[in-house]
Amino acid sequence: MAIVKPFKGIRPPAALVEAVECRPYDVLNSEEARIEAGDNEKSLYHIIKPEIDFAPEVSEYDPKVYEQAAKNFQKFQDNGWLVQDEEEQYYIYAQTMNGRTQYGIVLGAYVNDYMQGHIKKHELTRRDKEEDRMKHVRICQANIEPVFLAYPDNPVLANLIRKYTATPPVYDFIAPIDGFGHQFWVVDNKTDIDTITEAFAQMPSLYIADGHHRSAAAARVGAEMAEQNPHHRGDEEYNYFMAVCFAASELTILDYNRVVKDLNGLTSEEFLHAIEENFVVTPKGTDCYKPQTLHEFSLYLDGAWFSLTAKEGTYDASDPIGVLDVDISSRLILDAILGIKDLRSDKRIDFVGGLRGLEELKTRVDSGEMRCALALYPVTMQQIIDIADSGKIMPPKATWFEPKLRSGLVIHKLM
Asked: Which of 13, 251, 292, 311 is the most buried (most CB within 10 A)?
């Protein structure tokens, strides 16, 4: 069973939400955050990217930067830019991208469910990134940003969401830069709160869609606080971390594409000939060509696009990892031909989220920065669930979820 609970969210008054909210900490660098925040002292970047309050040469990992996050979090509350709700409640968060809307329930997810594997992951975390978020959670004593979870489709929750989203939202805005819509409702009815809690209690597992480092950090800090509390009971707020849970069928996963700096000493002709051993190669001309199905890839090389279709026998359809296009391309092209062994550390490869489009791949190759580009068909949510259920881990840089959760709509205090 998945244990969840409502919580007393800390959130901006409706009139201030557009001044406070921002993109998540890990989709932009410090300089970009500094520019986006500008002279807006209410921007949540002052809490999640507090290095913007210092000179550019100050590291985002400097101890005084973490201290600044806590100071700014308190300042936001003192100034009334963030206000805590008086009662425990759930929240509904809707995101609209390209005319399509997905609805999530904001809740407290149980730390022990993560520790025991009932909240399932599909990616490895990097210890340095995990430690960074742990420091941030520790010093703020709060989950400032949520984890992005998925749950199996549930008609009870779908009906409840429809009930609330038929009413006016408390927040309703279009985010700058990407133009995606965001709406937010409060679930404060006791019967509805119990309905949500009970519906999740019937689910054997939840699945991390995005935010593996945030979830690991939040759970580990919660476990630390439990261990350090001699009077620990098990119902304290630190036993839970903030998450937004979406029905799995509603989520959009975009392609996560690759660009490579060189052909490992091969000419273009030799490279294509090597690919033909395991793929059917079909020229597609100069117009951008997007893969149409699983096991088809698009290659951009020397100003032209090619379709690469994996031949039978090059992958194991019964293996939840081996059947993935990210694994097929990594094994048979990046590793075997181009000599790229470690996607996490090799400097010859870079990754481009699908929201940027195939034109971004073309631009980076045509500029001479990169030698070729490889576009992949998106991973499906069912593939992610199958891998998580099998206890296996996906190859790195396999998924790109859009739209990203906006930060600053609600915060969860641990005490």
From this structure: 251
